[in-house]
TrEMBL record:
GO terms for cellular component: nucleus. Gene3D superfamilies: MAGE homology domain, winged helix WH2 motif. One of its GO terms (biological process) is negative regulation of transcription by RNA polymerase II. InterPro entries: MAGE, MAGE_WH2, MHD_dom. This is MAGE domain-containing protein. Residues 1-106 form the MAGE domain.
Length: 142
C-alpha cells in the first residue's frame, strides 16, 4: 500500500528513486535482505510486477536507464485512490479531505469507477430485472 501511496502522491507515476526514498525511511533497502520481504529489490521490481500490482518501465530516452512505477491492473482492480488516500490519512492521523488535491482526484476516480460498473451492468443486462416490485392492487383496498 505504501508504494501505491507514493505513486498516487507523485501524480500516478513515481520514479524508482522516489519509491526507494520512502522505503529507506521505513528501513527497507534495495541492496539489503529484509527479515520479512527477503530481497526487497526483487519484490518491488519483479514479484509485484509479475503479480500485476505494479507496472515498472524504463523512462523514455533516459541514459543511463532510469525506471518508474505505475499502478498495475491488479492494484486498480483491488483497491482505489480513495482507499489509498484513507490509508495515508490514517498514518497522518487526519482525514482524506485534509489533502484537497488528492482528495478531489480520489473522488473523481470513485465517480469514474461507479460509472464503469454501472455501464458494465447495463451491457450485461443485469439491470434489466431491477425494477420496482410494487403490488398496486394492495393500494385499492385502502
Amino acid at each position: 500500500m505504501t508504494i501505491l501511496c507514493v505513486i498516487f502522491m507523485k501524480g500516478n507515476c513515481a520514479t524508482e528513486e522516489d519509491i526507494w526514498e520512502v522505503l529507506n525511511v521505513m528501513g527497507v533497502y534495495a541492496e539489503r535482505k529484509h527479515l520479512i520481504y527477503g530481497d526487497p529489490k526483487k519484490l518491488v521490481t519483479q514479484d509485484l510486477v509479475q503479480e500485476r500490482y505494479l507496472q515498472y518501465r524504463q523512462v523514455a530516452n533516459s541514459d543511463p536507464p532510469r525506471y518508474e512505477f505505475l499502478w498495475g491492473p491488479r492494484a486498480h482492480a483491488e483497491t482505489s485512490k480513495m482507499k489509498v488516500l484513507e490509508f495515508l490519512a490514517k498514518i497522518h492521523d487526519t482525514v482524506p479531505s485534509a489533502f484537497p488535491s488528492w482528495y478531489e482526484e480520489a473522488l473523481q476516480d470513485e465517480e469514474e469507477r461507479t460509472r464503469a460498473r454501472f455501464a458494465a451492468l447495463l451491457r450485461t443486462g443485469a439491470l434489466a430485472d431491477v425494477r420496482p416490485r410494487v403490488n398496486f392492487g394492495s393500494f385499492f383496498h385502502l
